[in-house]
Amino acid sequence: MMRIEAYPVFTRAIVRIPGSNFDAGLTTAEFGAPLFDLALEQHWRYCDALTECGLALTTLEADLRFPDSTFVEDAAILTPRRAVLTRPGAASREGEVEAIRPAVLDFFPSPLTIDAPGTVDGGDICEAEEHFFIGLSHRTNEEGARQLAAHLAGLGYTSSTIDVRPMTSILHLKSGIAYLGDNTLVVMEEMAGNEQFHRFELIRVSADESYAANCVRVNDRVLVAAGFPQLTEELFARGFHPLVLEMSEFQKMDGGLSCLSLRF
To answer: Is 215 marked active-site?
Structure first.
């Protein structure tokens, strides 16, 4: 079993409670409407898991103006050096950035921004230590990617783009990949051949478990969706420590584990 080093070490996270109109959000999934009470229970357990991993939470109240706003990851990108407030690609979500701005400013007083006509969803951004993969998707456009790459370069990071627009199986880049530290990348099989991933140790996720590719390394644990035993067992075999969480109600709304928090 390999020795796992924690990278990076997170101490805080920002989360937002789902609103009672959560089922009015955007989705392409065909699993039926989410059950609100169950979504609340799953969100509570998710927050409890972050606390168990050593994080202090800033918990924002539900915002009924924006049914998707529990997916806080899309509104900001928090790097160790500076924050970037995004500009989501869905018009109904644009106001989420201003709604979360005060919480971000509490910890990152001078955030950078993405400006029109650029659009960026945080779910398209995968941080792999000093390098960022930027997904070009139906939510993140080329101008947004250009602006973000320039911001990251100014902060001393490198970046590259991955075009997921031809893919029908995922909404965001991080629906299909997750960086776990230790030069290890979880990647859904459909994307595993990308030459940009050749320098990484890959954990390939089969098509029937592709939803689980959106897992999250939080200090010594890896949050992983319940119901996907092959990936969970592979994580154990590689020396990681999975923490399995029910995500059924968020999957119905195109959401995954990374979407529900901003970790820093």
So the answer is: no
